[in-house]
Amino acid sequence: MSEPRDIDLTPSAAARVAAIAARQGKPAILRLSVEGGGCAGFQYRFGLADGVEAEDTVAERDGVTLVVDEISLDLVRGAAVDFVESLGGAAFQVRNPNAASGCGCGTSFSV
User: Closest Cα to residue 63, out of 15, 106, 3, 2?
Assistant: First the structure.
């Protein structure tokens, strides 16, 4: 049995990052960070990164890299980043086992 990952990227999220990175001519590296704010206390931020920093935790899937900084990792350890398409639109979502509650917008959470 493998050890649980600190952070994970689903195949659908990896495919979406690869498509966005290719369109923008950037490396397929998605940075997830957590900032104070949002309607529930913390909010997720996503963006393409140019590289991996020394303190980053890294997850890789299908040639795509997900990076999380050391401070944010404490709030998302054990989480998975997914890409979901629904009637309400398409978005990256974080399935975070550390979140005590979330909000309707899906980008904000509390611990």
Answer: 15
Does the model's pTM come out above 0.90? Answer: no
Burial 2-15 (b: 16+ CB within 10 A, else e): eeeeebbbbeebbe
Q: Is the alpha carbon torsion for 29, 32, 35, 37 positive or negative?
A: positive
pLDDT digits (tens, 9 = 90+) for 49-80: 999 999 999 999 999 999 999 999 999 999 99
Fold of 7-110: Hypothetical Protein Aq_1857; Chain: A; (2.60.300)
Contacts of 68 by beta carbon, 8 Å cutoff, 6+ apart: 6, 7, 31, 32, 33, 56, 57, 76
Task: For 44-87, give the DSSP string.
Answer: EEEEE-SS--TT-EEEEETTEEEEE-HHHHHHHTTEEEEEEEET
Domain boundaries, the chain: 7-110
